[in-house]
Amino acid sequence: MAAAIVAAAEAKGINLRHIDEDTVGVSADETTTQAIVAGVLEAFGAAAVDAAAGTDTEFALDAAVERSSGYLQHPVFNTHRSETQLLRYIRRLSDRDLALDRTMIPLGSCTMKLNATAEMEAISWPEFASIHPFAPDSQTVGWRELITDLEDQLTEITGYDQVSLQPNAGSQGELAGLLAIRGYHLSRGDDQRTVCLIPASAHGTNAASAVLAGMKVVVVATAPDGSIDHDDLNAKIEANKDVLSAIMITYPSTHGVYDADVREVCDSVHAAGGQVYVDGANLNALVGLAQPGKFGGDVSHLNLHKTFCIPHGGGGPGVGPVAAKAHLAPFMPGNAATWTEGNDVPISASRFGSAGVLPISWAYVKLMGAEGLTEATKSALLAANYVAARLNEYFPVLYTGEGGLVAHECILDLRGLTAKTGVTAEDVAKRLIDYGFHAPTLAFPVAGTLMVEPTESEDLGWPSASSTTASTPPPWRSRLRAR
Ligand SMILES: Cc1ncc(COP(=O)(O)O)c(C=O)c1O
To answer: Is residue 318 within 6 Å of ligand 1 at its C-beta?
Structure first.
């Protein structure tokens, strides 16, 4: 019955949602016309409806649900009365914005790299932008080809066996990955394996995700050089060996360093029956050079809104693909559209998560190619080491790895300066903004420090004499001066 109605509607160019044998979902929005409503009625078997005969009152809302309070009351909604005024208003707003079109955004741990126009162009095309997440497969062949291709590329880049693009953020990818670990242990009758080891330097989302996945967090100490404290790690593995579920490590670490002992850490956890979650937020330091799936990880999330050029845009929508080894595949996110109780759990409400932005990452990977991606990683490493080497004399670089080098970011330790002069890391961050520089990450992962990640998007030529930012003070500077 439901199938026949859905088919009749589709024949008229209208998609209804087939929920079960007797249930059909109908969604409408402000673009739904009377002709569409008439088509839906006909698909349900109503006699032909004269769409043109409909009047607005037939679609009027019940008085009980009509809004009676005021709305759009802020002056901004009634001040700009001409296109000229509106244009100037928009320009004023954009002048206040400190974005990558003005200056480097050196946010360590965030990888704010260029989202190139050529990569982003396609997402506004109706062929991509106007497809509903639950459109029938027959209408999404091209979309799914792009998605599968991107999954394949990410599988190859990470060295895992499969990727799900469903999670909408890195943190959601963490949850999906940890649920996969949990599902794996449960499938083996290891219900008691619920302890998750997390180094003290980890991003806050790691512990939050572990708790959400029903795990108990045990923190592993950091050694004075910023690496994982091995004595503490081994003691905690030993103390929890029967209940150990996983370790979550970040590689390179949030200290901006490639921990040389990463394989050793993974081996120790595996030997105790635990799984290894490698937080892939810092994949910009790995692409083309190393693969988490090959150096000991069982599962990772990536952040397409970091390494793969999707804008972070006000916290989302991002994409945090979860990538895993084959043994975790049965526990990866299931399909939200077909999920039934007791089966693999969907992690977001639609099968491909924030699919609308995937053409950006697809284009990035295709335009760069394997060689280009590796070059980008090397340039990002070089840029970070250049910044570290140039600033070290004035603001000591807190942690370095083998050979005195950092990975893709560096932590500048301002605590000595603060002790001597009272000038804090926060003061420096704010003063940088006065001069048109975006402030680096402040106080993460170490209080009193700034963390800088230049990425591969910056070259040595900036700011040059010809740079408009260098020769023309940004508007907020003069405003600040005038105060
Ligand atoms: C190391 C690390 N892990 C996880 C995350 C979480 O990713 P998201 O912000 O996409 O949820 C971040 C975000 O900055 C991070 O830096």
So the answer is: yes
For residue 261, give both structure tokens. 């002992």
**Angle at CA of residue 168, ends 310 and 332, nearest 5°:** 120
Q: Are residues 157 and 193 in the same domain?
A: yes
Pocket of ligand 1, candidates 105, 203, 305: which has the most ligand atoms within 8 Å of its Cβ, to mutate? Answer: 203
Residue 292: give the domain boundaries. 122-361
DSSP result, 154-211: HHHHHT-SEEE---SSHHHHHHHHHHHHHHHHHHTT-TT--EEEEETTS-HHHHHHHH
Phi-psi region of 169 (alpha: psi -120 to 50; beta: other; left: phi over 0): beta
The closest-lying atom of ligand 1 relative to the alpha carbon of residue 173 is 11
Q: In this structure, are 174 and 213 located in the same domain?
A: yes
Judge contact between 177 and 322, C-beta under 8 A. Answer: yes
Label residue 134 by pLDDT band (50, 70, 90): confident
pTM metric for this prediction: 0.89
Contacts of 401 (CB under 8 A, 6+ apart): 252, 257, 258, 259, 260, 407
Cα 10 to ligand 1 centre (Å): 41
Alpha-carbon distance of 115 to 100, in angstroms, equals: 9
Which residues sit opposite 277 in a β-bridge? 248, 299
End-to-end Cα distance, the chain: 71
Mean of all residue pLDDT scores within the chain:
91
Residue 136 within any structural domain of the chain: yes
Query: Which residue has the CA at smallest separation from atom 9 of ligand 1?
Result: 170
**Residue 469 in this model has a pLDDT that exceeds 60:** no
**Which of 328, 314, 164 minimizes the C-alpha distance to 245?**
328
Task: For residue range 92-121, list pLDDT tens digits in order.
Answer: 999 988 888 888 999 999 999 999 999 999
Helix (H/G/I), strand (E/B), else coil: 324: strand
Contact of 361 with 310, CB cutoff 8 Å: yes
In the predicted structure, residue 124 carries a pLDDT above the cut 90: yes
Domain boundary among 326, 361, 396: 361
Residue 117 lies in a domain: no
CA R_g for the chain:
26
- What residues are paired with 470 via a beta bridge? none
- Nearest CA to 331 among 194, 210, 176, 193? 176
Distance 23 CA to ligand 1 centre (A): 39
Closest CA to 480 of 437, 440, 431: 431
What residues form DSSP beta bridges with 24? 18
Q: Residue 292 and residue 277: Cα distance in Å, rounded?
A: 9
